[in-house]
C-alpha cells in the first residue's frame, strides 16, 4: 500500500470516515458532511520531542497505516469522524513539531487545543524529560490547565517496564493525568489513547458547566439587599 506523503492537511480517506474540514467552527461543533448532523468537535494537540512518533500516531489513528520514515513535522492537521453509539464526534488532530525552532507554532496549537496527547518514546527516557520541559514551560504561562493524557509510544520496542515507564508513573501522579502505552507500528493502544483524551476533555467541559450553574444558583439565592434566601 502506498504510504501517505506529508502535506499541511492530509485527506486520504483510506478505509476510514476521515473528512477534512478546512474552515474552523467557533462553537466547538462541526457539521457532519453527509447528514447535516451536528457533532461535537475536539481539537487534540499531539505534543512531544522530535522522533517520539507523534506523526506516526496521528497517521495511524486517521489513516490506519504506519509510516516508517522520520520526516520532521512543522505542523499538520487531520480530521476524522469517530462513531460512538448512535452518535459520534469530530476529531481534529494537530500534529506539532518536536523541534524547538518551531516553538511558536507549537504554542499556537496548544492555545487552540481542547486537550493534549503528551507523547514520549518508551525506549528513550530523555524524551520524557523533554516532554516534561515543553509541557511545564507552556503550562506555567496558562491560567487553566488543558486536559492531558501521557502517552508512552513505541511499546513494541521494549520488552519490560524500563526507566521511562517508571518515571512516567511518577509524572502521571504529579500531573493528575492518565498514562497509556501505545505502538504506532502495531496500532496497540492508539484508538484508546485518543478516546481517553476525549473522555478527559468531556469531563473537564462538564465540570466547567457544573461550576457555572452552581454560581448562577448561588446568585439567584441572594435577594436584592444581598442576604441569602432559602
Ligand atoms: N518501532 C516503532 N517505531 C515508531 C513508532 N512510532 C514511530 N516510530 C518511528 O519513529 C520515527 C519517528 O516517528 P515520527 O512520527 O516521524 O516522529 P515525530 O515525533 O512526529 O517527529 P517530529 O516530526 O520530528 O517531531 C519514524 O521512523 C517512525 O517510523 C512505534 O510505535 N514503534
TrEMBL record:
Q: Which superkingdom heads the taxonomic lineage of this protein's source?
A: Eukaryota
Enzyme Commission number, as recorded: 3.6.5.2
Q: Which residues cross the membrane?
A: none
> Keywords of this protein's UniProt record, alphabetized?
Cell membrane, GTP-binding, Hydrolase, Membrane, Nucleotide-binding
What the entry lists under SUPFAM superfamilies is as follows: P-loop containing nucleoside triphosphate hydrolases (SSF52540)
Name the reaction it catalyses: GTP + H2O = GDP + phosphate + H(+)
What GO molecular-function term can you cite, just one? Answer: G protein activity
Which InterPro entries does this entry report, sorted A to Z?
Answer: P-loop_NTPase (IPR027417), Small_GTP-bd (IPR005225), Small_GTPase (IPR001806), Small_GTPase_Ras-type (IPR020849)
Its Gene Ontology cellular component terms are:
plasma membrane
Q: What is its main location?
A: membrane
Q: Where in the cell is it found?
A: Cell membrane
Q: Does this UniProt record's set of keywords contain Membrane? A: yes
Listed Pfam families: Ras
Name the CDD domains on file. Answer: RalA_RalB
- UniProt record, GO biological process: signal transduction
Annotated family: Belongs to the small GTPase superfamily. Ras family.
**Which named protein is this?**
small monomeric GTPase
This protein's species is Cricetulus griseus
* Gene from which this protein is expressed: LOC100765408
Amino acid at each position: 500500500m502506498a504510504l501517505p506523503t506529508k502535506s499541511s492537511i492530509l485527506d486520504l480517506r483510506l478505509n476510514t470516515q476521515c473528512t477534512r474540514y478546512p474552515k474552523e467552527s467557533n462553537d466547538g461543533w462541526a457539521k457532519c458532511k453527509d447528514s447535516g448532523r451536528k457533532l461535537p468537535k475536539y481539537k487534540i494537540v499531539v505534543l512531544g520531542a522530535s522522533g517520539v512518533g507523534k506523526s506516526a500516531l496521528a497517521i495511524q489513528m486517521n489513516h490506519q497505516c504506519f509510516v516508517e520514515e522520520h520526516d520532521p513535522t512543522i505542523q499538520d492537521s487531520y480530521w476524522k469522524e469517530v462513531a460512538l453509539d448512535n452518535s459520534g464526534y469530530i476529531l481534529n488532530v494537530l500534529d506539532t513539531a518536536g523541534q524547538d525552532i518551531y516553538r511558536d507554532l507549537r504554542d499556537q496549537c496548544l492555545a487552540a487545543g481542547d486537550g493534549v496527547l503528551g507523547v514520549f518514546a518508551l525506549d528513550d527516557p530523555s524524551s520524557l524529560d523533554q516532554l516534561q520541559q515543553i509541557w511545564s514551560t507552556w503550562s506555567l504561562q496558562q491560567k487553566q490547565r488543558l486536559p492531558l493524557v501521557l502517552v508512552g509510544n513505541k511499546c513494541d520496542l521494549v520488552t519490560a517496564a524500563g526507566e521511562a515507564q517508571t518515571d512516567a508513573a511518577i509524572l502521571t501522579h504529579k500531573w493528575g493525568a492518565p498514562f497509556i502505552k501505545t505502538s504506532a507500528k502495531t496500532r496497540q493502544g492508539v484508538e484508546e489513547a485518543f478516546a481517553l483524551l476525549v473522555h478527559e476533555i468531556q469531563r473537564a467541559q462538564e465540570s466547567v458547566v457544573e461550576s457555572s450553574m452552581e454560581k448562577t444558583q448561588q446568585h439567584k439565592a441572594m435577594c436584592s439587599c444581598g442576604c441569602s434566601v432559602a
